[in-house]
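Bench notes, afternoon.
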Amino acid sequence: MPKSTAAATLGELRHAVGSGAVRRRSVHEEVRQNLICKLQSGEPLFPGIVGYDDTVVPQLINALLSRHNFILLGLRGQAKTRLLRALVTLLDDHIPVMPGCEINDDPLAPICAACRARIAAERDQARVAWLPRDARYVEKLATPDVTIADMVGDIDPIKAAKSGLQLSSELTMHYGLLPRANRGIFAINELPDLAGKIQVGLFNILQEGDVQIKGYPVRLPLDVLMAFTANPEDYTARGKIITPLKDRIGSEIRTHYPAGRAEGMKITAQEAWLARDGSGLRAEVPSFVAEVVEEIAFQARQDRRIDRRSGVSQRLPISAIENVLSNAERRALMNREAMVVPRVTDVYAALPSITGKFELEYEGELKGAEVIARELIRAAVATVADGYLSHLETRQVVEWFDLGGSLQLTDSTSADDLLGRAREVQGLVELAQAAGVPGEAQPPLMAAGVDFVLEGLYALKKISRSDERGYHATETPVRRPTARETAFTADTPMPTGGGKKKYYN
């Protein structure tokens, strides 16, 4: 409903409604009609939501077209809250309300006693205000300390004393979050964390659309679209949701993590702070570094040592890529380089942003979060490097190390220094170019390519790496003697069929 500057009084608003310039409809119907208009025009429904076009979004559209209250079930970091907040775009730009009303009362059909009294006294001269769509969204994180007064409301004895009213008067009510969301959207995050008696308090609003405050015969027929989020484990297995409340939620929609690495990289690039301002340096993240960071989350989600019930949030690669870029920025500043290009080895400097993003099972607790994180990084590098290097000839580089060569590098080595040492390794720079780094690339980008090849060969177990020697040849395991061999020594003759003596040296 567009804001009409002409409708400043109740009389003018009635005229606008009569002429069709202003429409009156419930929140569910308002969202439904605006959704239909967007679908018909082909306008994007939920900008910034990636990977849900064929799964979650169609189910959400069906729920809204059905005028359902709904719940989003998913693990942490699956854009549930962002989806809820995006519902605001389906509301009208402005709606008429009674000025100063706590529950956004409709001037044409007021439900609170104060607004009814004001309209009875002022009639068509009663003033009308216009409420923007952003002010019509109310969100509450469910916590065990939430009370029924917080959600629904309570009697305000101070208001009663100041006004000289009886406590049973409707004018003494202090409205909670639910009534204040009237004619808008009310979202509750982590619904299972609400106490059972608070969940009972949501029954009427979900089924009959009204609330009762403090046992007094005051019923408020609210107009609210209600949406919830929850962890599937809490919602279905632990019995934290009372059955009658589940029965009153119209649609249950499952969210999920990105289906592939490309989707995850798109989300990470969208959410991470990669445009570093203030340093005067230009930042560029190579695709292979972004892939490695994203692959860490995929490796963690399938690792049996990590608790899958709590999930691995998409915030892991978002935080990690920011730390990776910061380490590259630190190196560029130290070496007075004009370009910030992260390397795969910078990912190890991002351990503080990785270890806190997953919960460990018992087996993982025995090893420790940092050890698990390092193993995840190596597995991610191996997966990504296999895609880049599997079709390339790496034998020349590996043989250089097998012949006794070693390469000592750190994450603070400048690009020029790294390339100078890398040219000593036959075929290493050429292999980096074959892996996708342009031959005319600037030194920081070429250095990142060389670093990726070295880390890839290490992750694929073609070469080794240690703090003392840097990159070097893979250690050849020493063959242990068999039981038969250990039964004899160099001084002990072994009998043979020909009577001659042979000895093991």
